[in-house]
Amino acid sequence: MMKADNDFRGLKVLGLGDNVVDRYLNTGKMYPGGNALNFAVYAKMLGAEAAFLGTFGSDAAGRHVRATLEALSVPTALCRIVEGENGHADVRVVDGNREFVFSNKGGVAREHPFMPAQADLDYIASFALVHTSCYSHLNVHLATFKAASRLISYDFSYRWQVDDLIGPVAPHLDFAALSAGDVGRERAVSVLRETIAQGCGLALATLGPEGAVAYNGIDFISVPPKPTQVVDTLGAGDAFITATLLSLTASGWKRGSRLPAATIRTAMEKGADFAADICRIEGAFGHSAAIPAETPV
């Protein structure tokens, strides 16, 4: 496992939005996850001062995620707890490959949307970078979050392919991550150009076995994946994004500045190293619990 990076010590970052449990139906285990929550945990693993802000359900899944964050010393001071189901996604492993077969689309976080209070905005302002995602049900607040934050990043996952997200969301971002492993490099390059043209500062597309490509408005920067012994690829994309973002932020990146290609490449190489590490862990970052017997699957 990659050692904590001294360059990230004291770097305050926040995962804002989604958390889930990934329920592995083959093994009867559930693992904490979600784009924003993974970011917070991975940043903590890498030595940053990371926190999480979001909504938990009151069920066993929500309790397990909260207990895991407490055990990992990831603060959750302003998080909400709402009666009902925590977000969950059901996974089956078929011939060694993960297949997502069901999701409750965030559970209580979708049913009771997060409404930022002034205390939340003041809290957000204390972090060097805030990371959220398309699964966090926060798009309507992105302009508010950008005004409150120093840097804001957003994971589009693959939803940019099926929802009209780039135009409405990109103007409110300093950094965008897009999953493009199933559409190829040419399409990825096109959407990166579109994302920057809409006002985002820096955009990055993950390409699965082809690595990743980033665009700063002038340069396209590519890195290959790092060879590794794969136990579980869950969380690899989030790990790549997290280490890349921490490296960029630690380099002194400020809103409105264009990062040089060399700085971006160095950050992406750290991302590739950390993603390879995470592929050797079950679940997004381990910490499994048994799926409760009464849970419908």
From TrEMBL:
Q: Domain named Carbohydrate kinase PfkB: which ranges?
A: 24-275
Question: Which SUPFAM superfamilies does the entry link to?
Answer: Ribokinase-like (SSF53613)
Instruction: Identify one Pfam family in the record.
Output: PfkB
Q: Which family does it belong to?
A: Belongs to the carbohydrate kinase PfkB family.
Give a GO molecular function annotation for the protein: kinase activity
Q: Which domain of life is it from?
A: Bacteria
Q: Which InterPro entries match?
A: PfkB_Carbo_kinase, PfkB_dom, Ribokinase-like
User: What are the record keywords, sorted?
Assistant: Kinase, Transferase
Q: What is the lineage of its organism?
A: Bacteria, Pseudomonadati, Pseudomonadota, Alphaproteobacteria, Hyphomicrobiales
Q: What is this protein called?
A: Fructoselysine 6-kinase
List the CDD domains. Answer: Fructoselysine_kinase_like (cd01940)
